[in-house]
Amino acid sequence: MVLAVKAEGVKIGYIDEEDRVQWAVRGVDLEIGSGDSFCIVGESGSGKTTLANAIAGILPPHAIIQGRLIIDGKLVLDNGRLDFNGVRGRIVSYIPQNPGTSLNPFMTVEEHFYYILRDTKSLSRREARRIALESLMKVGLDQSVLEMYPHELSGGMQQRVTIAIAIASRPKIIIADEPTSSVDANLRAGILKLLNRLNRELGLTLIMVTHDIYSAAAVCNKVAVMLVGKIVEMGEVKALLYDPRHPYTRILLNCVPVLGVKKPLKPLVGEPPRLYSDIKHCPFLDRCPFAVETCKVEPLLEPVDEKRDHVVRCWRFKELKSVEL
Amino acid sequence: MPISLNYLLKRILLSFLVVLGVIVFSYTLLILTPGDPAVKWAGNPRGPGAVLAIELARRELGLDQPLHVQIAKFIYNVFTGNIGLSIAYKVPVTQVVASAFTSTLELLIVTYLFGVPVGVVLGTYSALRRGGRADSIIQTLAVVLASTPTFWLALIIMIILQAVFGVVPYGRIDGRLAIATNFKPITGFYLLDSLVQGNYAVFMDVFVRVIPPALAISVYPIGVLTRVTRTLVAEALLEDNVRAAVAWGVKRSTILRRYVLRSIIPPIVQISGLSFTYSLVDAMVVESMVFGREGLGSVLLDSLHKADFRVSLALIIYLTIFYIVVNTLVDILQATIDPRVRL
Amino acid sequence: MEPSRLGKHVLLRASKKLRFKIGLVIVVVMVAMAILAPYIAPYPDEGLGRVPLDGEGRRLLPPSPQHLLGTDTLGRDLLSRIMFAARAALMQSTIVIALSLVIGLVVGSFAAYFKGFVESVLTYLTELFMAVPSLVIALFIRLATNTPGYHVVIVSLTLTWWAWYARISYVYAKGIVELDYVVLAKLAGLHPLKIVGRHILRVIFQPMAVQAISDLGSALLEASAINFMGLGLPRDYPDWGVILFEGLRELSVIAFIRAPWLVVFPGLFILITTLGFALLADPLREELDPRLSRRWRLWF
């Protein structure tokens, strides 16, 4: 089975105004299988968007990259050298977080499709229009949308258009960057259902970035929880929901109100740190209610059981199984 | 039609009010400054006909009548185009200014047809190589150009032309050539007229003479646009829609053309329009003093030397109207090219 | 609404840049030249415009050891005239910009603050005076007052320039006036002038000041143009524009350009001075608006 995405020791940082490097992603290894729907969950500052941008091929050139990233068998990132030729749009596509600003205000919806399909697949105007109609239908929009300009569409429609654009070039992998954060609550479920459908019906590998672990649960079959640039827990969705082993995951699950479920809301105290250099201790040290002395050394990613598909980065994951938060 | 009737009406009303304001203001200056307004209005006449001329002027201005009547009379006269006869030319003042307008306007249009693309190209080139050496050189050049006094540059151009080619481009057109080839001005824009009549000799003549002044005046729009375009392009490249387009596989050339350049057109149009009105003054100075061309600049100089007050008033009014018209056109242009703008 | 950076920091960071230093040097040199002209000019009387007794014989001499920049149409030493002209240049620009800045700031902030009728009237006046070009106002004033002089330049330029500042202040102030803390101050009964002064002016002062510095150069260009046309300062007066004007008046264009030193040097000084102000203002402007400082490379 060819892996859709394979990351080996990926570290991504940015140079700031004073020429120091701020690491957003501090060492990530993961494998995403073809056809998976994979969620990357984390708070702002966790590095999830940076990682997603790396896979989508839109890291800013002032980013510093280490490690290797292989997409659909092609080595796209190799310790600072980028090679996304033929990848963007064709193998990997992207659903932006802000559909309103991500569409060109001077082009109609149809023109968007045309230029993308012309550049990625050398299609003619007519062929592009046909594909545009197909894609729009799949997301539940009809052809009247084609002649409109982005500002004439509602927020929900704009998001659907960006999804339609993303699938139009028939990519194998789609990265959805917080697809529901700029959409009204009542439309959120619709978008999530749509993404789910695309993953199942078209066989697309879906990689969704979100801060909301329950959205992740609704859509994905595998989840990775990121914290301060590293993955702290990763595995199948059911495993994480019912048997979370990392304190952070558990807190995440506990601090989101769920309609119909009465449970005490336990907020997470504190803010994510700004990174200047690599930190040697557990990323959760200052906010973890279970921190002990050994946590001053960063734990490794360990499997929870012999199946090896649920891993966690905590010294105390065995004891925490039964502890009530 | 992206322009509503409402907008047009508002604009016309605004122009009306502004011109009204200018007229009132001019009249105030005429009355309040030291000296007899009638004398000034008559153009400081000397000699035998002087007393009569002054008396006529007094009658015309209605200086013996109460102030509000004066102003009303003045406004009425001006609005009906009756500023009287030019002291210098003895033809209606409005006619003098109108015919000179086309000459200066032609010069300005040629200047901007050249200057705007050059500025935009330089600015884009600069932005794409941001931080590099080409960028610094171009930007420095732009600052120097924007700081150059155009009338001085015009003189320098003259010096160079004289030294290198032995020619001094003086005047707008070779009168004898025009007569010899039966040239007839139709619109007042000689470049257009000569082409329409198939008169290539005159066209070349006028064209060659318009290049040196246009070159001099163009440094201002080039200087401004180079810097502005660079900022606009650099910012446009950081926008979300460019990022999304890159992720979707759009090629670099397409992004530059359809995303970046397209998005900077509205502000470029705006700024070019503003510069255009500013360059009018430049053009007037350069064409009259340095190149001896006919046009608003010469009219201004004649008005100065013959103390032709009426012409100076007409100049103010016409140029104000020009400013408003250009701004309105720019707005309308914005509405046509930017689908988000609805007037 | 961009938060304004602390004035000192801005100045400090900007002052490190090469452009700033060059601009500063130029401006300082020009100011020094203006102040010290009577003492360092080789022919101070001629600098002030007086024609020397042996003027006839010294007309239009090219640059030489006795006259480093040559002589003009009446035999006066060009270098001295140019040195004295720095005074007129700086005086005209400073007075025009200072007056326009004050008037513009007041009008703009009042219009934004008081709204309603006051706002309409003030914006109308702003539109009005923006529409009139300075050159024709200068002509009008010249004819109306029947004499050349500083007033022509200063009044015409101020009349057209204040509206520009008024509009900028108005736009800025409008953004500030809606902010919560200003509304609160109003409700608390703080005197309107205090609100305007403390909140509005302090915020907009910085970007306006930077604009004003660069405008000192632009004002010089326009003032020189007015003098070059013969509308402003009179003949023989030490002013760069006037020197060029005289050249064209005394000689035909063709003869004038045969004396290139007379053309090149006065204009060169106008250029350099304007450039100095522009170079000074640019880094300051960049420091105030840091959006483009990072991420300096492109997507491709």
Please give the structural blueprint:
The complex is a heterotrimer of chains A (325), B (343) and C (300).
Chain A: E1 3-15, E2 21-33, E3 37-41, H1 48-56, E4 63-71, E5 74-78, E6 81-82, E7 92-95, H2 99-102, H3 109-121, H4 125-138, H5 155-168, E8 173-177, H6 185-202, E9 205-210, H7 213-219, E10 222-227, E11 230-236, H8 237-242, H9 247-254, E12 302-303, E13 311-312
Parallel strand pairs in A: 3-9, 3-10, 7-8, 8-9
Antiparallel strand pairs in A: 1-2, 1-4, 4-5, 5-6, 10-11, 11-13, 12-13
Helix pairs in contact in A: 3-4, 4-5
Chain B: H1 5-32, H2 37-42, H3 50-61, H4 67-79, H5 93-128, H6 133-146, H7 150-165, H8 175-180, H9 190-196, H10 200-236, H11 240-247, H12 252-290, H13 296-305, H14 309-337
Chain C: H1 7-14, H2 18-40, H3 44-48, H4 78-114, H5 116-131, H6 134-145, H7 150-177, H8 180-187, H9 192-228, H10 240-250, H11 253-256, H12 260-288
Q: What's the CATH class of the largest domain in chain A, please?
A: Alpha Beta
Write down the Rg of chain C. 23 Å
Question: What is the string of helix and strand elements of chain A?
Answer: EEEHEEEEHHHHEHEHEEHHEE
CATH topology of the largest domain in chain A: Rossmann fold
Whole-number total of structural domains of chain A? 2
- Structural class estimated from helices and strands of chain C: mainly alpha
Q: What is the terminal separation of chain A in angstroms? A: 40 Å
- Order of helix and strand elements from N to C terminus of chain C: HHHHHHHHHHHH
General shape of chain A:
globular
The fraction of residues in strands of chain C falls at under 5%
Spans of chain A with pLDDT under 50 lasting ≥5 residues?
A: none
Query: Superfamily at the CATH H level of the largest domain in chain A?
Result: P-loop containing nucleotide triphosphate hydrolases
Strand content of chain A: 15-25%
